[in-house]
Amino acid sequence: MTSDLLAPLDLAFWNIESPEHPMHLGALGVFAAHSPTAGAHAADLLASRAAAVPGLRMRIRDAWEPHRLLRPTAFGGAAREPYPAFDPLDHVVLHAPAAGFQAAAGRLMQRPLDRERPPWEAHVLPGEDGVSFAVLFKFHHALADGLRALTLAAALLDPLGPPPSRPRRPQEPSRGPLPAVRRLPALVRGALGEAGRALDIGASLAVSSLDVRSSPALSCEPSGTRRTAGAVVDLDDVHRIRKSVGGTVNDVLIAVVAGALRRWLDDRGAGSEGVAPRALVPVSTRRPRTAHPQGNRLSGYLIRLPVGDPDPLARLAAVRTAMDRNKDAGPHRGAGAVALLADHVPALGHRLAGPLAARAARLWFDILVTSVPLPGIPLRLGGHELTAVHPYAPLAPGHALAVAVSTYRGRVHYGLVADAESVPDVDRLAEALSQEVKRLIIACDG
Q: Which residues of 85-119 are buried (b: 16+ CB within 10 A; e: fewer)?
């Protein structure tokens, strides 16, 4: 059997997990059902197709072998390897009919994945109405980032047909490796550049921690419980706002989160005046032919959400300015790029410092707002069309709430994950997201 070492960031996600804070991604897909047995048929299809997807057969094992002492950076790490006892029925579960998909998803999201088996699950939830069913996919963040999870889940859905062929670029003839002496100046410059980048990230993080104006409602002591909620808004409305005031679709979607948080905090009596929580907006740095093609390649932008500003257009302008500033600096600098430092920590360091790093998330940012890309073509399972999909992000230790968003077939789907004890009213926040879009439209028209 072959195995490959986890990339540094994957290893970090593997080691910071705890029973109270499982590190898995999730996505709740809702399908239109043609019959009351559609859910059972979907479960059968998922199980049969999973056996043919190599990435779903991979478990994660600790790498303590003596030969890794020759590579100190790998000793104490972990590796993906095929699981010889793989059984799809250990991962695909058909549940009893559910009255509310979100309520069921919340209970399932709080359960950690089995670390002895390939760390993924697919939970099929038939609807009590008989005209719909849902599938909750769970993938450990060490197994897949958002793009990789999408690829694995898509392999279980109905075939989309062959991808369009792309012309291949002619390859330049190889010149062979440069002699070590000739490579030395480049290596030195690279090392100095990495050191300078680390210092820049550290300084930016220190500055970002000054004058933190968050809200107690966004932090909590971990309870190990989860509650999920979702909101759906029309993409045409988002484009209407964007065309009126400028910026990007993502700027509008982040500003909607800021406005919804303001309404939610005020409604629950927590108060929004002066609140400007730090939002971490992940950015993929994945490039073709990387050393870890399956690994997480993430950086991030850190921005202050203008929750305390009562003007919706001013909030959007503030988000746009902050995002433009981050983009000008690039994803490899600034306080949001802390994840890049994982590449410079040896495997044993990740293992020993994992619990400490997990607790440090609360010092780094106050809320996660992430975007998960989806294809624009219709997706189906057993011929049943996917009508909605709500992505879920892992909830960092000390955080009460995480927000993920995906665009699919002309609609924007928000997925909220919250600590159930600290945020029992996450449904009200989901409602506030839809209300904020309407408020922005009114402000633009006015």
A: ebebeebbbbbeebeebbebbbebbbebbeeebbb
Contacts of 442 (CB under 8 A, 6+ apart): none
Q: Which helix (H) or strand (E) holds 444?
A: helix 426-445
For 262-315, the pLDDT digits (tens) are 999 999 999 999 999 999 998 876 554 443 445 555 568 899 999 999 999 999
Are domains 4-154 and 194-445 of this chain identical in fold?
Answer: yes
Distance CA 145, CA 152 (A): 10
Among 129, 158, 126, 105, CA closest to 39: 126
**Cα distance between residue 181 and residue 110, in whole Å:** 53
Domain spans, the chain: 4-154, 194-445
Report residue 266 as tokens.
């005020």
Tell how strand 384-392 and strand 120-126 pair up.
Answer: unpaired
Count of Cβ atoms closer than 10 Å to residue 242 Cβ:
20
438 by Cβ neighbours in 10 Å (0-12 / 13-18 / 19+) ranks as exposed
Burial class (CB in 10 A: 0-12, 13-18, 19+), 329: middle
Nearest residue to 45 via CA among 145, 129, 159, 183: 159
Mean pLDDT over residues 40-68, rounded?
Answer: 87
Given this structure, which CATH class describes domain 194-445? alpha beta
Which residue matches tokens 């009508």?
Answer: 387
Give the pLDDT confidence of 127-181 residue by residue, as tens digits: 998 899 999 999 999 998 888 888 899 999 998 755 444 444 444 444 444 454 4
CATH topology for 4-154 is Chloramphenicol Acetyltransferase (3.30.559)
Q: What are phi and psi of 278, to 5 degrees?
A: -85, 120
Phi, psi of 105 (to 5 degrees): -60, -40
Sign of the dihedral through C-alpha 186, 189, 192, 198: negative
- pTM summary value: 0.84
Sole residue written with tokens 């600096």: 329
